[in-house]
Amino acid sequence: MMYSKEELFLAISNVIDPEVGFNLVEMGLIYDASCDDDGNAHVTMTLSTKACPMHQLIQQWVKEAVQKMANIKEVEIELVWEPEWNVTMADEHVKKALGGG
Amino acid sequence: MFSVSQDFAPPFKLISPFFILGSLFYLFATIFLFFFSTENISLLDTKVLSFVHIFLLGFIMMTIFGAMAQLVPVVLEVGHFGVELFYAIWPLLGIGTVLMAAGFLSSAALLPYGGVIVLIAMMIFVMEIFLTIKKVEKFNLVMSSILISNIFLFFGIIFGLVMALGYAGTIDVDINSLLRSHVFLVVGGYIIITLMGLSVVLLPMFGLSHGFSKKPLEIAMIIMSLAVLSVVSSSFIDYLFLEYLGYFLASLSLIIYFYLIFTIYKTRARKEIDIYAMSLIFAYFSMLISLILGISYLVVGYEPLLLSAGWLIFFGFFGFAVTGHVYKIVPFLVWFERFSPLVGKQKVPMLADMVPPKSSQAQFLFAALGVSIVAVAILLQDDTLIKAGASFLVVGAIAFLRSVLYMINYK
Asked: Could you say which of B108, B137, B166 is where a domain stops?
């Protein structure tokens, strides 16, 4: 593997949802990420709502964030709706901030 | 590289006139209030009709149509049939509204002209929506709400035109019985069902609500549709039961809808009470109080109760539901056009940064006070209080116009 899941997540954590102000990783929207030895990356992700008007843009940002990593050739984004996202998937500090805590 | 289409965010220059004109008409409507006294506030007074059309056509419908240019693809999950048609809608709707308002005030002969121009604008809108819906392969509840509400709008504007011809003396019709149908088709059938459908998409999207049931929406929509059909039937069949059945069903539908909104509110992850949440809370409580006043009117028959209920539905519920969403929709469209290409290249603002805090808070505060004061003034039949409420509303409307222009020009 060229990059670990953690390294890919770190790269994707630069992508911020402009509506809530948190990055996609801490929101819990990135379910999985992998990269083979040839530099082909695969990201499995979801969105907080199916009706998100920014869904194309957000996927593009994720793709670009991974493509910026050295020696990455291809990035495939798989958008899934199962399991459905809910706030319990977000990091503690995000839950606390959203909940006004 | 992904190709990001404009399907989900039409060009802002296409939509911005709807919001600018809408907020100007809102301001005109609030200024209009200074010319009311308790003696001329009645459902058939020409000043009231002029005012209602400025508010509903010029502000509510204008803003909803602009918002729909962006929201329809989001809700229907397909691109517009011909989003460029929206370039024709706002000038026609604007001119038609001015002519209708002038027609009611001074020259009834203007009404058919205004009515026809409004009819053309709305037909373009409805047909564009129908042709967009045709592209949908699998229908869900929200898509059905868009279809149903636009069918009601189609018939509502036909009734409206017939009434305009009646007012001008071109044809002889019973305006009073048609008025009920026109109001129910447009207000209950279009505006309320549209708000119902959109609210299960937009409120959870902004509040991050999950795990609530959409069943109440289905029930509320069916009951509201039956209410509209009941009232429309009562215009043709002289049977009082049908009319009152319609009022009862409409009230029941709104109670169920309020319950749905409450469940969405309770299941939200985002607890922050921003200008959007504040506006929506005020809107839904206005709806609830209006409902109580409306039901009280049916029991005791005191007309100011009905007028105050109508005021709260229009300026409280519709007004704040619309202004609240403007604070979400306009920043998104401006951000999408101006800042999304810069993501990853330079620091870009968050959407919330684009909402002016002072003028949005001022708008909320002054408009909420104004709406509440006028509601009480109508109940007490107090002219001085109406003027006091109007003063607050004018300041609120100026602050709203300022907020809209600030967001549109954000750089």
From this structure: B137
